[in-house]
Design goal:
Length: about 375
C-alpha cells in the first residue's frame, strides 16, 4: 500500500514540471482508513508546498491520518512556513517519505521535528524514482550549479545535417514533441552562436494548448557576433535572453544588446572561448537550476570536455545521409585514444514512433 500511495504522490508531483524551478517537484497524499482524503502538489515557485495543498484539499479531518510525501517536509521559513510544523499541528499520525532532502536548510531536520512530536516516520519509499524526478534539484541544491542535459538528434549513420547543412527534420513529430517537453522542464536552453547564425532559432516551448513556460535563452557567443535581428532577441516571451561573452566582444555592441533587453555575462577567455564552467557558476547564481544544451557539434564537444554535462538524450532516426563533410553531433578535436573516451552509464532506451532515444548519464571525471 505504501508503494501504491507513493506512486500517486509522484504522479501528482509531475504536475509542477516547468513551474517550480529552482524548487523541487513534490507531491503529497493523505490517507485515512485506506482512503485518500487529500492530495496536493507544489504548483509554482513561491506558492504553497505540496503538504499544505493536500491539507487544503482534504475532504475530512486529517487527524490520525497518514501522509505520503515524495520529499522530506521542509523545516525552515522560506517563501512559505515550514511544512513539518504544519504536519504536527494537523495531528498527522504517520509520515511516509520518498526521499530525504539534501538541502542544507532541511537535511534531516524535517524528520527530526516530526519524530520529536511523536509522529512515526518511514523514509526511502520509491527513493530512486524520487531522485530521478528531481535530478536537477538534487544537483543544484548541493552544488549551486545547473543540471545540464545535452540533447541532440542524428541519423543512423551519425549525422546532424546534410553536407549542405540542412537539418530539418531528422527526427519525427513525436521526438520533436518530447524535446519541447524537455524545454518546458528546463530553466534554461543553451546554444552556441554557430547555431544562431545557421538556424536563427526561437528557442521557445511549443506544446499546443498546454500551459508552458519558455526557458531562459542562453547564447554562448565569445565575440558577440549575434545579429540584432536574431529571433532570440525579438520575441514576445516572459523568458529573457542571456549572452555569454568574453573580452573579445565589442563594448558598443554589448550596450546595444542590453538596450534590446539581453543580459550579458562576461567570462575570461579559455582557449579563446567562453569559460563554460564559469558560465555555469554565473547561471547558478541566477537560480537557473537546469540547462538543456541544444548546441552544435563544437559547443557539444566543448561542454563534454569541460565536464559540465550531466546527462545526454540522443535521438536516432532510421535515416542515412552519408557524406564526409556532413557534421556529426560532437565535433572539436576529439579524443586521440579510446582510454580517454567519455563514458556513460545508467542507460535507458525509449521509442518515439520510428525514432529511438538513448538516455544516459555522464560519468564524472573532474568533479565528484
Amino acid at each position: 500500500m505504501d508503494i501504491k500511495y507513493m506512486k500517486r504522490a509522484l504522479e501528482l508531483a509531475r504536475g509542477g514540471i516547468g513551474y517550480t524551478n529552482p524548487n523541487p517537484l513534490v507531491g503529497a497524499v493523505i490517507v485515512k482508513d485506506n482512503r485518500i482524503i487529500g492530495e496536493g502538489y507544489h504548483k509554482d515557485y513561491g506558492s504553497n508546498h505540496a503538504e499544505v495543498n493536500a491539507f487544503l484539499n482534504a475532504t475530512e479531518d486529517v487527524k490520525g491520518a497518514t501522509m505520503y510525501v515524495t520529499l522530506e517536509p521542509c523545516s525552515h521559513y522560506g517563501k512559505t512556513p515550514p511544512c513539518a510544523k504544519a504536519i504536527v499541528e494537523k495531528g498527522i499520525k504517520k509520515v511516509i517519505i520518498g526521499l530525504k532532502d539534501p538541502n542544507p536548510l532541511v537535511a534531516g531536520r524535517g524528520i527530526k521535528i516530526l519524530e520529536e512530536a511523536g509522529i512515526e516516520v518511514v523514509a526511502g519509499v520509491l527513493e530512486e524514482e524520487g531522485k530521478k524526478l528531481n535530478e536537477p534539484f538534487l544537483k543544484y541544491i548541493t552544488t549551486k550549479l545547473p543540471f545540464v542535459i545535452l540533447k541532440t538528434a542524428m541519423t543512423l549513420d551519425g549525422k546532424i545535417a546534410t553536407r549542405t547543412n540542412e537539418s530539418k527534420w531528422i527526427t519525427g513529430e513525436l521526438s520533436r514533441k518530447y524535446v519541447h517537453e524537455l524545454r518546458h522542464r528546463a530553466a534554461g536552453i543553451m546554444v552556441g552562436i554557430g547555431t544562431v547564425l545557421a538556424d536563427n532559432p526561437s528557442l521557445t516551448t511549443r506544446l499546443g494548448d498546454v500551459r508552458v513556460s519558455d526557458p531562459i535563452r542562453i547564447i554562448v557567443d565569445s565575440s558577440a557576433r549575434i545579429p540584432l535581428e536574431a529571433n532570440v532577441l525579438n520575441l514576445e516571451s516572459d523568458a529573457k535572453t542571456i549572452i555569454g561573452v568574453t573580452e573579445k566582444a565589442d563594448k558598443q555592441k554589448l550596450r546595444i544588446l542590453e538596450e534590446k533587453g539581453a543580459e550579458i555575462i562576461y567570462t575570461p577567455s579559455k582557449n579563446g572561448r567562453v569559460d563554460l564552467n564559469l558560465l555555469m557558476k554565473e547561471l547558478g547564481e541566477r537560480k537557473i537550476d537546469s540547462v538543456l544544451l541544444e548546441g552544435g557539434s563544437e559547443l557539444n564537444y566543448a561542454s563534454i570536455e569541460e565536464d559540465i554535462v550531466d546527462k545526454v538524450c540522443v535521438f536516432i532516426a532510421p535515416k542515412i545521409i552519408g557524406g564526409n563533410t556532413a557534421k556529426s553531433p560532437v565535433g572539436g578535436d576529439g579524443k586521440a585514444y579510446m582510454k580517454d573516451a567519455i563514458n556513460l552509464d545508467d542507460i535507458a532506451i525509449h521509442r518515439f514512433g520510428d525514432d529511438i532515444m538513448v538516455e544516459a548519464y555522464v560519468k564524472r571525471r573532474n568533479r565528484t
